[in-house]
From TrEMBL:
Name under which the protein is recorded: Hsp70-Hsp90 organising protein
Listed GO MF terms: Hsp90 protein binding
Annotated spans, Disordered: 222-256
Composition bias type Basic and acidic residues, residue spans: 240-249
Oligomeric and partner information: Monomer. Homodimer. Forms a complex composed of HOP and chaperones HSP70 and HSP90; the interaction is stronger in the absence of ATP. Interacts (via TPR 1, 2, 3, 7, 8 and 9 repeats) with HSP70 (via C-terminus); the interaction is direct and is stronger in the absence of ATP. Interacts (via TPR 4, 5 and 6 repeats) with HSP90 (via C-terminus); the interaction is direct.
Repeat (TPR) residue spans along the chain: 4-37, 72-105, 274-307, 409-442, 443-476, 477-510
Entry's localization field: Cytoplasm
Domain STI1: 148-187, 544-583
Length: 595
């Protein structure tokens, strides 16, 4: 029986893989064993929220606070659940309660800032025709999109859903999301404007100018209403990054990226000095003088604390120095700086990618996957997608390797045998599959699995299992006999002949292979098949790539043409061993009939 900690670890793995129901189940089992562990409730709360069940997430968060009231993350769980439920005042109260426990906790600070921002956005006055940008992306948007045949499939993409949720929290970010054409389509739908038609039906979608125009139309009335209701306030300072040449190493250090001056934040003189320090750091970095590079980047960050690039470059140095934890901390700091100063999605994504690479180097593939996914949510890049897929593959291999246990495999096989003898085929299959997972190199378990799959008439699955068994042990005669039996049932008589013969080549007196060979030869020579059965058999054989190769052989084609004119030509061809094997295979497959 698994311990509570083992169940928690399984829940963590399921959560990282996106299997939220499975994660919830494992955490629930852990709680049943140890209801006093606050982490179990916290983790299950996160899984519920990921699944979309904010009410259950809230219950677990409150239980977590009850068990350990001095743990700040419990309050962030509660705040996040209340935020998701759009109970903004309650969420703010939860974060403030957490701040009383841990005033310096970054997670509480970030959560509080986000929910205050969401509350302010939700409180914006509506425009004349039903609301501004905040109302466009209101609570009913997902229902509207789900009911539209064109947009419903988009909701299957978590990146798209995350961007919609971001717009619900801060509609002013829509101009920064031009890179996703689906959002342009949705905006046109919500505004009742055909953006594609607006540009003359160009076919490739609306341009950035069209998009900006549509955004301005939606924002204009809301801005006017807001201006009438409140005195003007200075805009939030954010400047888009200026295009510049970039070079990156494995750590992702951005060598050239500058920001325009943000009025009222950092003086132009300090910004200039900061960029000079960064340039000096870049030279040291290129020369692999990492300590000097780090000092230069730290000086740049001190001069301009609003530019996340300077912190990100420090993380790149730590990556090169193989200080994975320090790299991770600096990446998180860069992300915090970037969010506070409204950095571009691209820069935030790069910081997450670097975190992922550092986690992978440290051997934590689960965290690496989590960071790569976060990067894709911020800004989708094909290279990051490949990195994510490769890391997921490595993680699955590592999980499979960690699962191997020959003793447990043997026990599963014995349970499978008991179910098989009792005629419980489904349970037998389940146990044999468990045995295969526990000991993937054992050919016997795969052969047993094939036998059970035959019983439920899953012949393709059975054939795949026995072929894997033979791949592991080519001299496994019992598997050759099983393969022949499966091919016989599938009416692949030419293949069955070959399988039984290979078994006899290894063990010439094997009764299973002898009996199989005899029944297959008898079936081939039998004339009792109906015309429909013969047609089905030939059609099945014609789908076999090996038969197709034989029939496409010019020499075989010539022999068959000559045989139609004179049967003696066929006898002459059969004198050649290579040609004889091909002709016999065509006869066995039912393609060629000899009377």
């Amino acid at each position: 029986m698994s311990t509570a900690e083992e169940l928690k670890a399984k829940g963590n793995a399921a959560q990282q893989a996106g299997n939220f129901e499975e994660a919830i189940d494992f955490y629930s089992q852990a709680i049943a064993l140890d209801g006093s562990n606050h982490i179990f409730y916290s983790n299950r709360s996160a899984s519920y929220l990921s699944k979309g069940d904010a009410d259950s997430a809230l219950q677990d968060a409150e239980k977590c606070i009850e068990v350990k009231p001095d743990w700040p993350k419990a309050y962030t769980r509660k705040g996040a659940a209340l935020h998701s439920l759009r109970r903004y005042d309650d969420a703010i109260a939860a974060y403030e309660a957490g701040a009383a426990v841990a005033p310096a906790d970054d997670g509480i600070k970030r959560g509080l800032a986000e929910v205050q921002k969401a509350k302010a956005s939700a409180a914006q006055p509506p425009r004349g025709m039903g609301g501004g940008m905040g109302n466009l992306f209101g609570e009913n948007i997902f229902a509207r999109l789900a009911g539209n045949p064109k947009f419903a499939p988009y909701l299957a993409d978590p990146v798209f859903v995350k961007r919609i949720q971001d717009l619900q929290r801060d509609p002013s970010n829509i101009s920064a999301m031009q890179q996703d054409p689906r959002l342009m389509e949705v905006l046109g739908f919500l505004l009742g404007i055909d953006l594609q038609a607006a540009r003359g039906g160009g076919g490739a979608g609306a341009s950035a100018d069209d998009f900006d125009a549509a955004v301005e139309e939606a924002e204009a009335e809301a801005a006017a209403a807001a201006a009438a209701a409140a005195p003007p306030s200075p805009p939030k300072a954010r400047s888009p990054p200026r295009e510049a040449a970039k070079e990156q190493d494995e750590g992702g250090m951005e060598v050239e990226e500058e920001w325009e001056v943000v009025e009222g934040a950092v003086s132009p003189a300090d910004k200039k000095k900061a960029l000079e320090c960064k340039a000096k750091g870049n030279k040291h970095y290129s020369a692999k003088e990492f300590d000097q590079a780090l000092a230069a980047y730290q000086e740049a960050a001190a001069l301009d604390p609003t530019n996340m690039t300077f912190v990100s470059n420090q993380a790149a140095v730590k990556f090169e120095q193989k200080e994975w934890d320090a790299c991770d901390e600096l990446c998180q700091k860069a992300i915090d700086v970037g969010r506070a100063n409204r950095a571009s999605y691209e820069d935030l994504a790069k910081a997450y990618v670097r975190r992922g690479k550092a986690a992978a180097k440290a051997g934590d593939l689960g965290r690496a996957i989590e960071h790569y996914r976060s990067a894709q949510v911020e800004h989708y890049v094909k290279e990051t997608e490949r990195l994510l897929k490769n890391t997921e593959l490595e993680w699955r291999k590592a999980q499979a390797a960690a699962y191997v246990d020959p003793e447990k495999a043997l026990a599963a096989k014995e349970r499978g045998n008991e179910h098989f003898r009792a005629g419980n085929w489904v349970d037998a299959i389940k146990e044999y599959e468990e045995a295969v997972k526990r000991d993937p190199s054992n050919a016997v378990y795969r052969n047993n699995l094939a036998s059970a799959l035959v019983k439920i008439m899953d012949f393709n699955g059975a054939k795949a299992a026995v072929e894997k068994a033979l791949e592991l042990d080519p001299k496994y005669v019992k598997a050759w006999a099983k393969k022949g039996d499966i091919e016989f049932v599938m009416k692949e008589y030419h293949k069955a002949l070959e399988s039984f013969q290979k078994g006899l080549d290894l063990e010439n007196d094997n009764s299973l292979c002898k009996a199989g060979l005899q029944k297959t030869v008898a079936k081939i020579q039998s004339t009792g098949a109906t015309p429909d059965e013969e047609r089905e058999r030939r059609a099945h054989a014609m789908a076999d790539p090996e038969i197709q190769r034989i029939l496409s052989d010019p020499v075989v084609q010539q022999v068959l043409q000559d045989a139609q004119q004179s049967p003696h030509e066929l006898q002459k061809a059969l004198a050649n061993p290579g040609m004889r094997a091909k002709i016999e295979k065509l006869i066995a497959a039912g393609i060629l009939q000899v009377r």
